[in-house]
User: Fold this.
Amino acid sequence: MKVPKIVIDLFTGPDGETWHAGRIAAVPMFFSGLTLPWVQLWRTGSVSLGEAGALYLTLAGAVWALIHGAKTMDIMPGAAGGKEQAG
Assistant:
């Protein structure tokens, strides 16, 4: 089965081959975090806006950390600020 190009573009580095664990792990965390207040609203009938705001703020921070924590994977070989060693 061929992986769709959009999935490769979203979850791999510039080389199109290296998969980013942080980007992949951010997807289920993002969607579960988005649905949690709605599940709470459906089950209890009320949602605290302060708690929902705190949840979304921490969710955004965690997704940001997962994605930007893997920045070193975006550096292509030879582009990390140095000359290639000959020999």
User: Anything to note?
Assistant: Helices lie at 5-11, 21-44, 49-69. The mean pLDDT is 76. The first helix runs from residue 5 to 11. The CA atoms of residues 49 and 55 lie 10 Å apart.
